[in-house]
Design goal:
Helices cover 37% and strands 18% of the residues. By secondary structure, it is an alpha/beta fold. Strands 3-4-5-2-1-6-7-11-12 form a nine-stranded mixed β-sheet, sandwiched between helices. It has a six-stranded parallel β-sheet with strand order 15-14-13-16-17-18, sandwiched between helices. Strand 16, helix 14 and strand 17 form a beta-alpha-beta unit. The chain binds adenosine-5'-diphosphate (ADP) and alpha-D-glucopyranose. Alpha-D-glucopyranose binds next to helix 1.
Amino acid sequence: MTAAATNRDQLRVLFATSECAPLVKTGGLADVSAALPAALGALGHDIRILLPGYREVLAQLPHSREIARVAALADVPGARLLLEQTAAGVALIVLDCPELYDRSGGPYQTGAGVDWPDNAMRFGLLSRVAALLGSSVSPLDWQPQVLHCNDWQTGLAPAYLRHAAGARAATLLTVHNLAFQGIFEPRLVAALGLPAESFGADGVEFYGKLSFLKAGLQFADAISTVSPGYAREIQDAALGFGLHGLLSWRKDKLYGILNGIDTSLWNPATDPLIECRYSADTLASKAGNKRALQRRLGLASGPELPLFAVVSRLTEQKGLDWLLEITPQLLALPAQLALLGSGDPQLERGFLALSRSHPQQLSATIGFDEPLAHLIEAGADAFLMPSRFEPCGMNQMYSQRYGTPPVVRSTGGLADTVIDCNPATLADGSASGFVFHDPSARALLAAIERAAGAWRDAAKWRALQRNAMARDFSWAASARRYAGIYAQLAAQR
Ligand code: ADP
Ligand code: GLC
């Protein structure tokens, strides 16, 4: 990274989020919430993260100390603020409220996959405290110039701030996924301590309900999303989830900034979670990871077949129903498939059933397993992401860095980060994966067949792997773009 911000340029930013790796993670938001603040810190900015003190988070932070208390507001309980640091040395403010966060299960759902019934309060508190810390009545002696909110879980913060008296931080809301909106009954407006007049079409109301995300999109000073492609797509009805009108109305303040990846955590040359470390110059060593993965998953290790892989939430978004439909044809290529994920019970059952009838060729691991995700990135030949929509996607970038060309549908951040392998892109050295367009099982299968064909041509495959590994997906450029937006917002305050 180039010169850090001088004191004069240094910005104070509070980054409010509901996940942060490795403390608590369900998806890419956790990766971004760990790596982006660290990259901004490396640029010299004073950035602090606000995160709920879920049971699993507090268990990993035994030495945190109390720095302030927050009083209850309406039905939103009071809480303590604890201070800690992330592994990368970023200040972390943990929001401790045992009645809302001290329980076993995920951050949004019970262990059985049902939304917590008090999610409005759990993320109402997170939003309320984010707003409080950005206001003139903050209990801390540190005041951010910018409050950076992420997704619906912090979407109510700009609404709280809009109704606060006195000087306040500017707000940026980043949309990581428009499909999740935080929609609740209107009676919760009063319970959350919001003024009754906020419940209107130009406020927190969305088709007669209270919407956390709509509130944020309405009231944030600026909005961003995690790829330029998705920033365009969400302004249209097809992928706008009912919010395209508002988003296109706000398009002058809507930015598309591609996520980066943590290039030290996801580095095949140093990754402690894989079997054999390798780089673009020592790609032959990648084979040791394939053998280790096959051994670990009980897949046959010969004759040599292309091994495709998936690491994903198993949901409608990810297009894995198309993969399930064509898995018999994939196996008949012949090829192998390793899947890691959890979610939709029907998809879980479908892949498990096929893995039982084809144990040598197909493995389905249901669950969340970070070390296995790394070994899969290193050991697979190609990675599958047939998403219906994808705001950014992290795994297609991890895959390219690991020399595991991704097969992706042309949508959102996938279209922005993967360059289709064809004679022209092979000739100019840009080909880095396989891109298909139609939202269908057939189009996915055709792309998988193209990938399997290319894999059989060893020289072509090596070229593709090297191109993919040479690409720069680091945070450097995107962190600067965020810093630029923060600076503009702070100057307008
Ligand atoms: P999303 O946030 O929509 O789930 P992303 O591609 O942005 O999709 O990020 C997903 C992140 O979660 C990646 O880091 C991926 O490796 C990880 N991940 C998803 N499912 C699993 C799983 N079952 N086990 C381990 N890691 C997973
Ligand atoms: C969301 C999106 C994913 C994105 C991630 C991080 O979960 O589904 O595409 O990469 O957020 O921004």
